[in-house]
Fold:
Amino acid sequence: MTALKTASLAALMTAALAGTTLAADTVKIGYQLPLTGETAQYGQDFRKAAEIALTEFNAAGKPFKAEIVFEDSRSDAKEGTNIARKFVDDKAIVGVLGDFTSGVSMASAQVYKDAGMPQLSQTASHPDYTKISKYQFRNIATQAQEGPYNAKWMLSKGYKNIAVIAEQTDWGQSVVSGFTDGVKANGGTVVFSEFFNRGLKDYRSLISKLERAKPDAIYTGFFYEDGAQFLRQVQQLGIKTPVYSTSAAYSPKLIELAGEAAEGVHLTSNFLPTDPAPHIQHFVTEWKAASNGAVPGQFPAQAYDAVRIMLAAVEKAYPNPTREKVRDALAETKDFAGVTGKTSFSADREAEKELVKVEVKGGAFVPVAD
Amino acid sequence: MNVSDLSAPPRGRGLLIPLLLALLVFVGLPAMLAGFDRGYFYQIANLALIFILLSASMHLVTGVAGLLHLGHAAFYGVGAYTAALLSTKFGLGFTVTLPLSGVVAALIAFLVALPTMRLVSIYFAVATLAIGQMLYLVMLNWVEFTKGPNGIIVTKGLELFGFSLSGRLATYYTVATVVALCVLAIGRLSHSYYGNALRSIREDDQCADAMGVSTARLKMEAFTLSAFFAGVAGSLWAHMTGYISPGDFKFSESILILAMVVVGGLGSLPGAVIGALLLILLPEGLRAFGDFRNIMVGLVMFLSILLLPKGLLGEVSALQLARRQLGAAWRNTVKGEGIGWR
Structure:
């Protein structure tokens, strides 16, 4: 009797196990991002965005379930390469998202290059990142694209002499070079350009040096923390020169931290939380629910789209997705309708984005025609 | 002290532990790594080895000579940048860049040491902090030369006279051999009369000076030598990862290395090795705990300092181990009486 019981129980359990394996055909994706450390605020946002995208995907009745393995890189190249090796070892992982900084993304990319693992970063903006191998993709407009666009915009407004400042990072370097090229090509002059180290507290000497060059306008490459600090000090010094910036500063936190001082700042973006399109409003609602009503900025939106682009590529490669098949599917991404506009990958795996012009008016980002 | 305590260890016994260690590093571990065949384990093993070298080299200055060094990571960076620049600009391979990285780091250390070596205690610490920051800012801001924050992609992997060593096992063996040789040299330096002279500076530099020990010169030598080994570690890292940027060598890395030395045991070479292993392996091992792992690592460090202020393997026990079990540089008189260092 007991033997029979045990046997039937065992049979039941095997059936249950078989059932779960059948129902849950799961495909794994790795996501390396800074969940702790100095840049944790970005990584935490990316995880939140990724979880929204993942929940949606798994609720949509697709033929398989997706799973994302999050690993904390602390924006440290050592940890990033460790994680990369770990992901490569896991045969079930067919694609990787991340990292946040270009430095860690590029150190990890050396591992993915050799292993043939597709890597899609939502933010790595280093000009050489996608040149590492055919496995590196990014879902961010590069400064080679954004710089000339902004240069034309500013020149069309009649600003001929422009001062440029940017943070001293690989990204800041590309902001200055991309923009300067655009200004020169369109007949303007860059009268001043300088870099500052991230997290600088006192911009006043930089601002007064910059003002001595008498620019018509200032073009800036910073993230919201530095941006808010800079804008407040510009206001304190009573300077009225118009300030333009990149999509990286496009975060509600910029207005929150800079307050009045952010008024009149012009920047570009490819994500507008006020856009009434249903898929954008869906993301904004989900994000607000997950973050006490806060409005998402540019980066979480890029991460959300990156995850969805990756999942779409996996779906395309299904059944039996392999790393190679996922890579090819990623490369074929065309006009992907994301919250950051339509995204296509060019032949060199750069995301081609449509940019929107935005101005800060009355404490909010408002789209402008020119 | 009883003279019999100082008597020489039997020859065979003195070789047993080094032999076992060598077997572990060159046979046991590689066999395990090959058995698991996971790139992740190889990566961790190599990283741990590099940090063993960094921690051991800092042990020479901070542990043995007692000089609080807050800029060690910068010399690690100088080594890495030397290797990266030599290999990308002149196409030189690892065989050449490895020693040169050490030499350039040592040279820079020597130059900055010249004016700072008369400083003592906290003043020396602040001076090294400034040196570390200066070198870091040079790597970050001298864009034309170092490519600044863009970092450098190092396309050349590990090799020996043109013979590629970039396979998993070959990489491990290369890193392990270089690190083992360097640690052996550091061991020879710290477990000797020379090491004792450095210890005398740590205990009382004025007294040591009065006894005829040239303190300024010794400090400078220790500082330069330690930078040499850090530079070698930098070259290993540059060729192993294939991409370096200034962020890898910032102040927090100096503090990490310092923590390894202190947690392991100030003045203890085996302690420095254990400290490096602990602080590299623990955060990786605790990955499963997600966001809490940093707190757990911090807790382990805090408790180990609280309960074992002399370190996991303190200096006294480490020296006894070196003297009795490793037979390090211990000399006897003809009568068989020990006259060696202690």
About this structure: The radius of gyration of chain A is 23 Å. The first helix of chain A runs from residue 2 to 23.
